[in-house]
């Protein structure tokens, strides 16, 4: 059975098969976790991203990790929060599902996600965590190469939210 983990910290430090980036649709870098990943991965990353011609919201694309300890980066574009009635939950779930599909297609085993859309894009953290955990859990019900999914929470608030949801599911 694949396992779910929660850690608090900087996703760029993780030596997993793939880390997911909360990218914007240009894929050319931005603030938040995207900026941290570009800084840690090095200038090769933006060259690789230029070849990808951007990415739609809810979709994901793969590059190498370059100077990161992670082998690959899966760049997923989360929705901007616009009140919740603009398909945000489906688009956010799609980010997690598409990232896992790409990881599975490359027979990767260990993948780590940031809390997509909960920074600059303004998605309420508790609702985003519910969507993330539900989408990942549903994906892992089917046979897959993925053995371990880590939710990397940058802030204590997100960490507590994730811990509470997972604890309530295990009861
Ligand atoms: P978005 O535009 O999708 O909201 P952000 O990068 O602004 O993306 O934020 C997404 C989440 O990533 C936020 O919860 C933010 O606190 C977190 N974050 C920022 N830097 C890092 C990092 N180095 N490692 C992991 N998570 C990070």
Report on the structure:
With 171 residues, the protein is α/β, with parallel strands linked by helices. The protein has a single domain (3-161), classed as Leucine Aminopeptidase, subunit E, domain 1, CATH 3.40.220. The chain is 38% helix and 19% strand. It contains five helices and six strands. It has helices at 32-41, 44-50, 88-105, 125-139, 156-170; strands at residues 3-8, 18-23, 60-64, 72-77, 110-113, 148-153. It has a six-stranded mixed beta sheet, sandwiched between helices. The longest helix is centred in the middle third of the chain and has 18 residues, at 88-105. The chain is globular. The relative contact order is 0.21. The model has no long low-confidence stretch (mean pLDDT 97). Bound molecules: adenosine-5'-diphosphate. Adenosine-5'-diphosphate binds at residues 10-12, 22, 32-34, 36, 78, 114-121, 152, 154-155, 158.
Short description:
This protein is of the alpha/beta class and 171 residues long. The chain has five helices and six strands, in the order E-E-H-H-E-E-H-E-H-E-H.
């Amino acid at each position: 059975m694949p396992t779910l983990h929660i850690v608090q910290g900087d996703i760029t430090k993780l030596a997993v098969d793939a880390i997911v980036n909360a990218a914007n649709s240009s894929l050319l870098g931005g603030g938040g976790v995207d900026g941290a990943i570009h800084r840690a991965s090095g200038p090769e990353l933006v060259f690789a991203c230029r070849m990808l011609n951007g990415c739609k919201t809810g979709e994901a694309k793969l590059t190498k990790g370059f100077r990161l300890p992670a082998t690959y980066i899966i760049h997923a574009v989360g929705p901007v929060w616009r009140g919740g009635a603009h398909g945000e939950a489906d688009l956010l779930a799609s980010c997690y599902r598409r990232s896992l599909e790409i990881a599975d297609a490359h027979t990767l085993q260990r993948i780590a996600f940031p809390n997509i859309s909960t920074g600059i894009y303004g998605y309420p953290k508790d609702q985003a965590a519910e969507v993330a955990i539900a989408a990942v859990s549903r994906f892992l019900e089917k046979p897959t190469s993925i053995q371990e999914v880590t939710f990397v929470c940058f802030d204590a608030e997100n960490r507590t939210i994730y811990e509470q949801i997972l604890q309530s599911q295990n009861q």
